[in-house]
Specification:
CATH topology: Spore Coat Polysaccharide Biosynthesis Protein SpsA, Chain A
Structural class: alpha/beta
CATH architecture: Alpha-Beta Complex
Bound molecules: guanosine-5'-triphosphate, magnesium ion
Number of helices: 8
Shape: globular
CATH superfamily: Spore Coat Polysaccharide Biosynthesis Protein SpsA, Chain A
Largest sheet: 7 strands, mixed
Distance between the termini: 34 Å
Radius of gyration: 17 Å
Number of strands: 9
Strand order of the largest sheet: 3-2-1-4-7-5-8
CATH class: Alpha Beta
Number of domains: 1
Amino acid sequence: MASRALVIVPTYNERFNIERLIPAILVQDSSLEVLVVDDGSPDGTGAIVDEIAQANPRVHVIHRSGKLGLGTAYIAGFRWALERKYDLIFEMDADFSHNPETLPEFLSMANEADLVIGSRYQNGRVNVVNWPMSRLLLSYAANLYARAITGLPIADTTAGFKCFRRNVLESIDLSAVKSNGYAFQIEMHFRVWKRGFRLVEIPIIFVDRTEGVSKMSKKIVREAIWMVWRLRWWSIIGRI
Ligand SMILES: Nc1nc2c(ncn2[C@@H]2O[C@H](COP(=O)(O)OP(=O)(O)OP(=O)(O)O)[C@@H](O)[C@H]2O)c(=O)[nH]1
Ligand SMILES: [Mg+2]
């Protein structure tokens, strides 16, 4: 049987992006479906996706009551995907920072790896377009820091464009995942790596959003600073 792949896209106030993004994803490969996890966006993103989903059986939506964070949105999406036996499960942002045209490359790499990560910082290169220098430095420094503390053998620890094989997510205790912002990405990479799975990075070009508003906050940065130490500690005491 052909494999089925689900692209999970969390949204908060992404109405102008999401209605363009969904068709741009679906056209890449006939195996792809989309699950939008919307947190009651005040701009009406959820209602727009409902309309698209009604007209297209490859589009699905989960509505949550309010802004509950990126990490828990993905966990809800992962559970939904596992219940429905998708073979491949993607994480992808709604704001076109992640180019849908790269999806076929992920699909072919997923034959050789358990987790395919779209990497902005591979081979000493920085593939980021239109970020202010301050944001780039923050992200780059955060990566060096996270790698140093956790030992993760990947260049882009906070990458948010990736593809898991189903068995990877099945083998992780999703209810134990604690972080919600950028740290969520580090924590997932760490848990997958510690389980002995094969992580592979493919280069992507990350383009800053042109529509909608950033949800980046100091709280998200603080969470990541502490979380890497917690991950290291949990791994030492055998909790991960
Ligand atoms: N469901 C849900 N989605 C969220 C939440 N926070 C962010 N998102 C979505 O997660 C994705 C990544 O968030 P972004 O705000 O783009 O984060 P970023 O790329 O680090 O920062 P900017 O692009 O500068 O905003 C986007 O699709 C957001 O709409 C949330 O609390 N709940
Ligand atoms: Mg973004």
